[in-house]
Specification:
There is one protein chain. The chain has two domains: about 110 residues, Rna Polymerase Sigma Factor, Chain: A (Orthogonal Bundle), CATH 1.10.1740.10; about 80 residues, Winged helix-like DNA-binding domain superfamily/Winged helix DNA-binding domain (Arc Repressor Mutant, subunit A, Orthogonal Bundle), CATH 1.10.10.10. Helix 1 packs across helix 2, helix 2 crosses helix 4 and helix 6 crosses helix 8. The chain has eight helices and no strands. With about 190 residues, it is mainly α. About 10% of the residues have low confidence. The longest helix is centred in the middle third of the chain and has 30 residues. It is elongated.
Length: about 190
């Protein structure tokens, strides 16, 4: 019988010993989830690749100290969360500094694929935009727990391990996040009527 956790533990043990192939396999297994999580959290395509790479660089450096106390996936997401928080802190400082020095903003351009159905695409983009706006309206602590549970599908225990929170805190913040997103989307819908 196939046991992915046992296989992962064997990969992790090999990676801890410096096995490059094992490190590559671990990165390949988790790259899409980490990339998606960071994008969902930050919403900035330009920084996602850098932070994903930094997450895996830190994993490579720190894996020798990994002690199997928390699931590997939780441990990896903790690295991504910490890097994302650091990025947000630096971004706030840069925004304050740039506001103090200039008020000019660059224009953004979006390229649309004309072959696709423009009305269907517009509706999908509008829905995704509304969800992203709802996510961005959440405080970071609620946004992180929502993304880890409902997007990345981590268990409550994995989230608690990743964020160093109690299980009750994870559940209550997830409840609040879902409620605030629902309220935000309901309010948007009412404003459109």
């Amino acid at each position: 019988m196939y046991n992915q956790e046992t296989d992962n533990n064997e990969l992790i043990l090999a990676a801890k010993k410096g096995d490059q192939k094992a490190l590559t396999l671990l990165i390949n297994q988790h790259a899409e989830a980490i990339h998606s999580f960071i994008y969902s959290l930050l919403g900035d395509r330009h920084i996602v690749e850098d932070l994903s790479q930094e997450t895996f660089l830190r994993m490579i450096v720190a894996i020798k100290d990994y002690e199997f106390r928390a699931p590997f996936r939780s441990w990896l997401f903790r690295i991504a969360v910490n890097l994302s928080r650091d990025h947000l802190r630096r971004k706030k400082v840069r925004n304050i500094m740039s506001f103090l020095t200039t008020e000019e903003n660059d224009d953004e351009y979006t390229i649309v694929d004309a072959v696709q159905n423009p009305f269907k695409d517009l509706e999908q983009k509008e829905t995704m935009n509304n969800i992203n706006l709802a996510l961005k309206s959440l405080p970071e602590s609620l946004r992180v727990v929502f993304l880890l549970r409902d997007v990345q599908e981590l268990s409550y225990e994995e989230i608690a391990d990743s964020l160093k929170w109690s299980l009750g805190t994870v559940k209550s913040r997830l409840f609040r996040a879902r409620k605030e997103i629902a309220n935000y989307l309901t309010q948007l819908q009412e404003e459109m009527i």
